[in-house]
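User: Is it possible to get a 3D structure for a protein together with its bound compound? The compound here is adenosine-5'-diphosphate. I've pasted both below.
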Amino acid sequence: MKLSIGRRIIFSFLLLTTASLSFLGVYLLDFFYQKNLATATAHLVTNARIIETTLENSLYDREKQQQVNDAIQKITESCELRVTILDGSGNVLADSWERADALDNHLDRQEVQGALSGNCATAIRYSGTVSQNMLYAALPVYQKERLVGIIRTATPLTPIETNYQTTRFFILSAICTTMLLTILVGLYLAHRHTRPIEEMTRTAKRIADGALHMRIHIHTRDEFEVLAHTINQLTSNLEDKIIESNAEAKKSALILENMDNAVLLLDCYGNISSANHSAKEIFQLTPDLMGRHSISVIGASTLSETAQEVLATKCSRSVNLRIRLQHTLKTFEVFFAPILQPDGTVDHVLSVFHDISALQEIYDRQVEFVTNASHELATPLTSIKGFSETLLDGALDNPELCRKFLTIIHAESERMARLVKDLLQLAKLDNKEYCRQIKLEQVDLKEICAAVRSKLAPALAQKNLTLRIALADETAPLRANRDWIMQLMMNLVENAVKYTPPEGSIELKTWQDAEFAFVSVKDSGIGIAPQDLPFIFERFYRTDKARSRAVGGSGIGLSLVRFIVEMFGGSITAQSQPNQGTTFTFSLPLHDAAKTDTPVPKNMH
Ligand code: ADP
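Assistant: Yes, that's possible. Here is the predicted structure of the complex:
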């Protein structure tokens, strides 16, 4: 059980007072008792000596026994004194209180024994004769240096005992009164001294509970005031530090919550302990998923494996992670950092996800492009190399073979030239600086269509194809660049020529609304299979490589077309039915007189 300081003070006071007073009481009681006893003993001895001196001659004279007896009766009449005269053998010769012949031999009495040894002796005993406690003094009597008898004086102890009891009563009363006073004074002092402590304890508890604005107000001008001042200072420092760290924590939380990167905190078992807003959004983390293992949430074991490595080595690490999120393949560069505890242990790992999907895609595309371009160039080169080697090996001598091989070499080199030209055009459009410098001007669709017809007239005639041009009644000029629109139209119509069997037809149609001009290129050709349709605008995509190569295709034409249309702020679609024909429809913004020609086209990539 805990003792409060107040109780401890009272208890200590009480203990101290009771112990000291009891000691003092016992000491005084004994002192006064011994002193009274000594006084009474001295009186008894004095009386014995007086009797000895007074009755010296008649004391042991047989004939004067009655005289002695009367004398001691007289002496003791007025006082509480008993006198007994004994001979040297302990026989009672006279007694002031009893008849001498009725008393037995007193030789065995303690005081008598003491006196017989030659000294004055005393004893305290219960007297069977007078039935009370008595104080005895025995004085040996010598005649001619021979012990002839003993004078014994005695007095009841009652006055001394009464005195003793009275003194004891007073001392006990004093002790009780002092104890009572001590309790009262103790209570007062305890209250006085514990009040500041209680006040400090109360306030300190509230401070510990978080009320850091609380301060202790005591003015005792002693150590308590110094202590209170120190606690106030500590609290003030703590409050400042907490405000500071709260601000820091808020700042960090704000940064963490608003950063684009997903941040996950993993515990030593690989479970997700905490996640920022981006992480919740990217990984669709619902509250019930928190605390679950990262594999079940992210679906990749790399994460927990690397986290375990970081936990073991206590070193940061970075890994690339490819995962499928909501049917989209995402690439993250994940940075892992151990969270070191003050004791040097690591129980959590911080993982920061940097989304590099766009970069990865660019990189993948670059690789794919280089692979495709190399492949496309390698094929005609192999062909040219093969046929030229055959020619050198002797085919030159055969004019017919020679002509045939040279025709192939020429066709292949033309294909390569076309491919390189297309690639150069793509590279041009990929260059942002070049795109920015393209001059926007008024482009007349009618004129473009006429130019296309005249340029492709030989090809059309060769396959006996019909080209019909159906222009809108009033065609407003486009806001674009003539050369690139010419290129776009040529690509579309050339494709129509390439993929339409002889005797087929091609239709060029234009119309417009308030903002856009629309152009469709429709042919009655071989068409495109529905599964290929979504991919035809991609670089190097060809539905049938052999057929495309046969007609001199490179797989870049449509990707250039889409690039050009979107660069000038339009869009393009394709509809097709296998063996019935294909229609490409694109839109381009009309020229707005209010706008000046600026070299910055829309939707540039
Ligand atoms: P290519 O130089 O091979 O023609 P394009 O990018 O111009 O490359 O066309 C991509 C693919 O789309 C072609 O290989 C062809 O299979 C298909 N294609 C394009 N235009 C037509 C069309 N008018 N009719 C049928 N197929 C077409």
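The first helix runs from residue 5 to 54. The pocket of adenosine-5'-diphosphate is lined by residues 495-496, 499, 523, 525-528, 536, 541-544, 548, 553-559, 582 (CB under 6 Å).
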